[in-house]
Amino acid sequence: MVPDDTPSTDDTPSDDGIASVDAPATDTSEPASNDFLAPGDDAPAELVDVLVYGLVGGIAGSVLSFVPFATVLGGAVAGYLCGGRPADALKTGTVAGVVMTLPFAAVVAFLLFFLGIAGAPAEFGIVALLVVGLAATYTLGSGIVGGYLGHYLRGRL
């Protein structure tokens, strides 16, 4: 005898001795989204939000500059506050990274100006510009990474 593979709708045991249970009905009227994000978090952020929260994250990263990986923390603050989509978090982290780079670049430019007046060799200026470029790349990159991590944490916390 071939077992019957058709699903039964009652809770009576079938021929093989296992009771069948109806599966709960699922509502498919809403689009699927991440259960961890608040309603509206998957909507794109406005440009004003990206700039404001990027500025806040950049200031937070600059204030916390004595803490290791403060640039990541500043980007994370910006990405967490902004919400929106992951691309918005990357933009906000970029703004935070630029804001965190500005004080460093201003101090180095100020020092190079006074060293130039004092008669420092040109090679020193070239090396200093290389150092500023590497530091700006590190700060900007870690701000972007922090923005993404902040967005991820917003979805989990």
TrEMBL record:
Q: Where is this region: Disordered?
A: 1-35
| Membrane-crossing residue ranges in chain numbering | 50-83, 95-118, 124-149
Protease listed as a keyword: no
| Bias-annotated ranges (Low complexity) | 1-11
Q: Which UniProt keywords apply?
A: Membrane, Transmembrane, Transmembrane helix
Pfam families named among the record's database cross-references? DUF5518
* Record-given protein name: DUF5518 domain-containing protein
